[in-house]
Design brief:
about 625 residues; alpha/beta; Helicase, Ruva Protein, domain 3; Arc Repressor Mutant, subunit A; 14-stranded parallel beta sheet; 14 helices; about 25% helix
Length: about 625
Amino acid sequence: MGGVGKTTLAHEVGSQAQKLNLFDKVVITTVSQKPNLERIQDQIAQYIGFGMKNEQGRRSEQELWLRLKNEPRILIILDDIWESINLKEKIGIPIGDDHKGCKVLLTTHRQQVCQAMDCQNVVQLGCLNDDEAWTLFEKKASLDEFSDDSIKILANQIVKKCEGLPIAIAPLGSALKGKTHHEWQAAYRRLKERRLTEIEDVNEENAYVCLEASFDYLKNMETKTCFLLCSLFPEDDEIYVENLVGYAWGLELYKGMDSIKDVRSEVLASIETLKNSGLLLDCGERHVKMHDVVRQFALWIASSRKEISFGTVETLPMDESFKHYTAISFETDQTDELPKGVGFPYLKLLLHGGNRLMETSSEFFEGMKALQVCALNHLLISLSTFQFHMNLQTLYLIDCKLSDISMLGKLKTLHILSLSRSDITELPTEAGDLENLRLLDLSYCYELRRITPNLIRRLSNLEELYLHGCSSLKWATENSTKRESYSSLSELNSLPKLVVISLDISSEHLPDGFMFRRLWSFDFCIGIGRYQKSETCPISRSLRINKSVDACKQLLEDVESLQLNKVEGHPNLIPSLDFGFRKLTSLDLRRCRSMQCLIDASKQQVPITALSNLRKLSLSHMFHLEEMCNAP
């Protein structure tokens, strides 16, 4: 059953298999209820250093199959399979007589999957026995031999209620860690009084009962809402925390917070609480996941409590039964049609996902008078659709084809706007009317060539601006004519509240004497291409500079990651660039031919804290470098 520990054990098997040198490579990928076979292939290929794309397009399953046959000893772990899959034809995995050195371990909720896929060894994983369950709970709740006996008695009773299910034991133990005797009593009372007949699947309900206790132990409604928002993302999705920040702001979740920076801090704190409670899983920098049982529980909570009314739509069309929802997420494919004529008078948040470009009409949105947050992917949509949504505060139109772009200025209530990866070629003058805008994300708008002059300076409340990956965007230079006028970089320094910028620019777009002012966070590529596609990362302080550092001198004191390429006129890093780089963790120097050492303390004293946090140093083609440090 879900939550019994299949994924945890599968990962441990992979780890031990490598430590014991049973395999040269171990690949782990999640299949899930709606398998994305291309994503699975990409993950397997990435582990073996094989690109699934080439100049001709996407490689075939046969090509991956042939490449995997070259791996002498490889273990492929396929986690969470729901239906039988032909591994050779659908993915390109050679097994059995095709390749004796390739072994596959799979996990599934359903025994019939094992039978259908001719598994040679089937291990049925039951719940923990009493001793194992107690050991796990004891560890999570930090109980020891010195703990109060009355609490231990209650703990034993609570563990029995969990019936050996780790996904119930771990969060509940974490939630009760350090609590008083009265709180332990209250927790047990809630578990005992719960009517187990309310849900058909008794085993699942036992998990839900314990998870509900963990959920109820969360101190504030904001953290609970963040948890429920995570359930609106697709199953097994790696949830980008920054999206939650935009949703939280648009829903006005954190009252009294006056800046996006502060709301981000609150959301990150809520996420840490949820991870520490076992309700969310960490999966890389600024990403989290939900265990499938936890997600099912979250959706159950959201649909069973009238004050929340969240839900996901598995199949279209939506009907009248969804009218009372305050938040809805759904996915479409090329055969789906969005419903028309269904009113959603209470809807505050709408999320749409999909991988196929789909056309939509304003009729779908007409009844959403209370809409505050709207996040849409892969739609062909007109911006005039939103002009009558007078309370819309957060709008994400990701990978969309947009028409009526001049209508942007009508959306005066917007605080957060993302048109990332959209097809816009110009940010029109009307966008300057968005006087309440706090965050503007135009990252990876590859067709964006022009922002009209004086537009940026009119966005007086703007706090965060993301323009990375806009490879065609031009800025005003001394040679610009009036006919082809562009926005000037100097407009950025005229925004009083701007504290976060990411930007890619060529060196020739920098006006003489221009300097960026101090910022809380920044990610600049100046004269250097951004080769790796990354999501917005607003907590970084990163500079990649080609030839001249003059425009960024104000930022050097706070920089955390620095790359200098072909920078001349500096015989050393310190004191020539005047700062001790106390916050610098990563330094990459390339072809800086005039640099003879990193630190020169022969003529003047250098701060003892210079480069004190440096963790990574890369030196490439530094032919005149004589020594690292010229000092006693």
